[in-house]
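Below is how a single chain appears once it has passed through the pipeline. First comes the sequence as given, then the structure the pipeline wrote out for it. We keep one example in the README because the format questions we get most often are answered faster by looking than by reading.
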Amino acid sequence: MGVTTEMTFIFKREKHARWAAYIVEDILKVALAERTSLDEELGLSRYSSLMAAHFFCEEELEDYDPVEADPRCALVWMERRGTRLVVTRCADVQRSFPLLESAIGDEPFPQICLAYATRFPQVPFAAYCRYEQTTSGYAQLTRAAWDGGCMRFRQNSGELPFNEKAWDTWDLLELRFYDGEWVAYEDVRSPLRRHYEELLDEAHEAAAAGDTAGALYFLDAAEALPGCAELPQAAIQRGLVAEHLQRYGVERVLELWSEEVPEKLRDELVAAEPVTECPLGGGRFMLQAQDAGFLVVDTSDGSIAGEGSCSFGSGPTRIVHDYLLFSGNRYFLIDWKYVVEPPLENMW
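Resulting structure:
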């Protein structure tokens, strides 16, 4: 699968861009040194983040030249254009990532941003990272901005084309430097995201009262909000709410980050037995596990109702609650179409 990634760092003055070049180079070196002799020699993997490895091993990294081992690595594509510093090709180190505290320590782009703000807190800047899968059309856009007091990350993703400038739909993560470390600032969600989560709460209350149709109504309303269709929380909750309902098709199959799967469900998946075939939806559908993913087959006509694929690696396939799978070391969610009584449109 073809992947392109580009990072851009924007400053008010050229000297600030020059300062950034040293930090970008060091963070990329740490990322490129993974599983090399230098990694073993310096013990880079023992540090909690790329930024920590950069600060503690700065002198040792000076003599490391990853270009010697790979003349097409990310460092080759780094250049300064006045007040901008650009790395035009860095897919070898920078991947897509969820906007979570637990994820940003492993990725060069957010680590470069935090390292620069830590070393030069008086210098405001903005930065962008664009990750795109050229074959599938999936893109992830991440923006960072430092104003001297807080680092605000925004992120949006989806299959192209989508409105890349719809800032009210972007996820937010705001970090502040406190007592020697970066910590998340509470409740920096956009109004749209708060509305989404409020609808999820309404759905939870309806389900707790036994009102399945009402719960599904609120979950559908949450997903109908701009930019929220691909968020997994509503689909996960729908699976729990509608577990007893009859299924008549597959709406979609979503791949999930491990952080997006509730811990209780992850534990259930670990305890589940591996399967090669498994009846779903009361027997109308059949799950067929494969080396590179799985198929959901409609037994009434033999058609493929849904599928999940893994580009690399294989592993046992496990399933819980008829809708959550662990296959090829990845998490997938089957978003079913349900038969609901009474019809949702007649509720009010």
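Confidence is low (pLDDT under 50) at residues 343-348.

See the next section for the split statistics.
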